[in-house]
Amino acid sequence: MKKIPVTESDELKKRQDTEQRSTSSASDGAPAADQADSDDPVAGLQADLDRFRDLAMRSRADFENYKKRSAREKEEAIKYANTSLLEKLVSIVDHFELGLEAARGEDEKSPIYSGMSLVLKQFQDFLAENGLQPIDAVGRKFDPNLHEAIAHEPSDEVPEGIVIRQTRRGYRLKDRLLRPSAVVVSSGPRK
């Protein structure tokens, strides 16, 4: 809302306009009572008072809305302050999981593999404590709000529109999508 300051010149112009109207109406044969009402200084002051009250109420409401909006924005900024850090950590977790999958093929009983599995578990627990939740996509209906389709494959076992494979895990940060899952979607039975 734009606030327009009231100056003495504005008030003077208003009064001159009122006097001109009252003079022209009096010369047209208007009753003398109308002329007396238009020259009444109390009525003019009352109108100004009403206008300023309205302006004060609007300013107060605008300020209250500003305070609420600022508090909401501050709360949201605090809630999602770690977003960029968690995005970087998620890519590290992805590479860690790939390395662990490669090590699993060689020997699952080696102390290095079990140590790496423990570190990955601690990493995932840390991310979960900070509000990060993985999105499970395999076997679910494709949802463009959560999944990013990178390919379609025909499948006799899986109906059309269902996720067959997940190539990259997606994550949510509290109630927002941090990263969509990269998935391969079934295009239905082969023709």
Q: Explain this structure to me?
A:
The chain has 191 residues and is of the alpha+beta class. The chain folds into three domains: 8-79; 82-130; 133-191, Head domain of nucleotide exchange factor GrpE (Nucleotide Exchange Factor Grpe, Chain A, domain 2, Roll), CATH 2.30.22.10. The chain is 57% helix and 16% strand. It contains five helices and six strands. The chain has helices spanning 8-27, 32-38, 41-79, 83-106, 111-129, and strands at residues 132-135, 147-153, 163-168, 170-173, 176-179, 181-186. The strands form two sheets. Strands 1-4-5 form a three-stranded antiparallel sheet. A three-stranded mixed sheet has the order 2-6-3, with no helix packed on it. Strand 4 (170-173) and strand 5 (176-179) form a beta hairpin. Helix 1 packs antiparallel against helix 2 and helix 4 (83-106) runs antiparallel to helix 5. It is elongated, with a radius of gyration of 36 Å. The two termini are 63 Å apart. Mean pLDDT is 82; it is low at 24-36.
Entry keywords:
191 residues; alpha+beta; Nucleotide Exchange Factor Grpe, Chain A, domain 2; 3-stranded antiparallel sheet; 3-stranded mixed sheet; 5 helices; 57% helix
